[in-house]
């Protein structure tokens, strides 16, 4: 099965591929930005196994898996993963999250009673559409520095030094990054702070409008949704009942 795209060309329903065809699944992940690996048990080590199967020797750094449980949960809007968290463990500074996590794996553990469907957007195509449909937003995304986590200043474990970047950047190897975080804020004493806040609101509105048009799909127990976190934004609908997933973020040799 190959991935299907929405008529807008931005929405994506990832191909579903069995773990026995990991090479094919890895190729589809590289081509489409997303794939669902099937046939694994919903165990704690399965996301790590899936990462190894999909990415192999390109793996460089794996961050601690996160078990997420929610009951009657609200929607999770379109976003890209990435967070700047360093903790002290036995006197040794230890990074638990990284702003430049370039892949994220989401494992279904317990599906919701109803709702909770996932959706994925190709952020590269979103930015390309903005160039013609909303040049002002496109210019903001590609040329304006923001404090990527400034809205979360003071959160325990978040470094005091602002993490400055643009929503659209490139790695030193030429790989494009398209960020989407609700933590972005104007730089301290930025004379254009009002403009930055207006553009952040405009981006949020555009993402919300896009979200409503995206195709939905299920992540069953044991399924692992793998995403190119530099290219794809993802989210899920509200749900009823218990819903549990495991999330694994990582960096490969291609990360910034």
Automatic annotation (TrEMBL):
Span of domain TauD/TfdA-like: 19-245
GO terms for MF: dioxygenase activity
Stored InterPro entries: TauD-like_sf, TauD/TfdA-like
UniProt cross-references to SUPFAM superfamilies, sorted A to Z: Clavaminate synthase-like
Keyword Calcium set for record: no
One Pfam assignment: TauD
Keyword Protein biosynthesis applies: no
Keywords on record: Dioxygenase, Iron, Oxidoreductase
Protein name: TauD/TfdA family dioxygenase
Organism whose genome encodes this protein: Streptomyces johnsoniae
């Amino acid at each position: 099965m190959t991935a299907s795209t929405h008529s807008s060309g931005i929405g994506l329903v990832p191909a579903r591929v069995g773990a026995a065809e990991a090479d094919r699944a890895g190729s589809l992940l590289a081509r489409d930005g997303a794939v669902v690996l099937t046939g694994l048990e919903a165990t704690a080590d399965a996301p790590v196994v899936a990462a190894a199967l999909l990415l192999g020797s390109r793996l460089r750094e794996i961050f601690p898996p996160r078990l997420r449980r929610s009951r009657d949960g609200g929607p999770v809007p379109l976003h890209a993963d990435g967070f700047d968290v360093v903790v002290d463990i036995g006197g040794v500074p230890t990074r638990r999250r990284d702003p430049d996590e370039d892949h994220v794996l989401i494992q279904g553990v317990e599906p919701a009673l109803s709702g909770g469907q996932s959706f994925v957007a190709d952020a590269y195509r979103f930015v390309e559409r903005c160039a013609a449909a909303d040049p002002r937003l496109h210019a903001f995304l590609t040329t304006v520095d923001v404090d990527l986590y400034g809205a979360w200043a003071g959160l325990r474990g978040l470094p005091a030094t602002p993490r400055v970047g643009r929503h659209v950047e490139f790695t030193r190897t030429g790989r494009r990054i398209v960020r989407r975080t609700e933590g972005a804020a104007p730089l301290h004493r930025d004379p254009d702070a009002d403009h930055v806040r207006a553009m952040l609101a405009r981006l949020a509105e555009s993402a919300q409008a896009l979200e409503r048009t995206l195709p939905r799909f299920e992540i069953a127990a044991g399924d692992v949704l793998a995403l190119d976190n530099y290219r794809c934004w993802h989210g899920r609908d509200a749900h009823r009942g218990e819903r549990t997933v495991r999330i694994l973020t990582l960096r490969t040799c291609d990360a910034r």
